[in-house]
Amino acid sequence: MEKIIYMDNAATSWPKPEETIKAMAEYFHSIGASPGRSGHRLSLDAGRVVLDARESVSELFGIKSLLRVVFTKNATESLNIAIAGLLKPGDHVITSGMEHNSVMRPLRVMEESGVELSIIPCSLSGEMDPEDVGRHIKKNTRAIYLTHASNVTGTIMPIAETGKIAREKGVIFCVDAAQTAGVIPIDVEEMFIDILAFTGHKALFGPQGTGGLYMAEGLEKEICPIMTGGTGSRSESEEHPDFLPDKYEAGTANVIGIAGLNAGIRFVRSVGIESIRKKESELTAILVEGLRSIPEVTLYGCGDAKKQTSVVSFNISGMDCARVAMALDEEFNIMSRPGLQCAPAAHRTIGTFSAGAVRLSLGYFLEKDDIQAVLSAVEKLVQR
Amino acid sequence: MMDTKTCLVLLFDSASEALLAEKLFKRAGISYKIIPVPRHLSSDCGVCIRVFASDKERARETLDGRVDIRDICPID
């Protein structure tokens, strides 16, 4: 098989650690049952798999009670619960000009039903001043929804600073950690995060179809579920349970996925977030420097590996980004993502709407040679 | 085997809570067994935890502030 250089880790990380694959196979081989339902030993074992995963998530994010970790199918589902489940007509909410559509689209839907939306403009490199958020808070401001890092430029947002402002003003602070969970340390207490949405299939090295939601104590009384149904608990009642995690976990859980997610989180913790971040930062710095030295290349974002995740977007002068991505794939075995990356707001901010850009997103399993291979491929492409 | 005549069952709102209680009992070294909820106690289809009656206070202290116990019932 030809060597693939996979640089689409901001969409889905790949390859996965062997541990993820093993844990999923082991669950399927030896357990396989529904958790929280039947009470036989395999059902209990399935429940233990899910509970262990809740514990791993709670330890990773500084969450005090592991029962406050809700599993969903991805960050999008978590954000939909946090948006559609919380907001009422007449509420005012704040978000940034760097958001993914997983935040923007549910907010736009709420806007149609009478929620007022303020979008904080960001700089050309995607940076936001937390004081701007403070200035937009009004009497009826219910919540602030903010990405931890842009999926287009990798720009890391001032989460703790914004969280502090939100806490002081009594506004709910919800963070979209899709791009950062597993690669940037997150502590919900220290960063004043009331709601955290994360996905399992990116830097946490779980499979697709896994993700989760944390909400601070008491918020479950204010946030409606977006789905109701069987939970295995209170079976005698046709009323949906009002306690965590069951309130937001209707239907049989994705236990095989959660088994893989738990193994992925354990991998992250055994390597260490700091080590993962250090390696990815070094690779990002080489990629940014290399691309910057090619005159035909326009680079987006802050261009400082310390202030961003390992997402690097660029364009080649006179070339459609989709053509660049196709050439990288077909001629150089490099997997990238062209276009708008589901984030039209971010592309408007950085001035690339609607042409888009080529996005290279690095991962822990890449090496310096891979970065050099990409740089030499781009150099060849600009000579055409 | 536990002597069921000297046992109690702890009821919880959900299987997640019962399994968390199990985890905490395991760490605390408390003997327990997870069993289906006896029908005369609840119509719920879930599970509960059986412990020795003599461990009642220890069990309660172990779960205090971490898992809510819905009810503690004698079992024959």
Give structural notes:
The complex is a heterodimer of chains A (384) and B (76). Chain A contains 11 helices and 12 strands. Chain A is 38% helix and 14% strand. In chain A, helix 3 packs parallel to helix 4 (101-112) and helix 8 (273-292) runs parallel beside helix 11 (368-382). Chain B has 76 residues and is of the alpha+beta class. Chain B has one domain (4-74): ACT domain (Alpha-Beta Plaits, 2-Layer Sandwich). Chain B is 29% helix and 25% strand. In chain B, strands 2-3-1-4 form a 4-stranded antiparallel β-sheet, with helices on one face. In chain B, 36% of the residues are buried. The model of chain B has no long low-confidence stretch (mean pLDDT 90). The chains are: A alpha/beta (384), B alpha+beta (76). The A-B interface holds A 35-39, 44, 47-48, 50-51, 54-55, 65-67, 231-236, 241, 243, 245-246 and B 13-17, 19-20, 22-23, 34-36, 42-47, 66-67.
Overview in brief:
In chain A, strand 5, helix 6 and strand 6 form a beta-alpha-beta unit. With 384 residues, chain A is of the alpha/beta class.
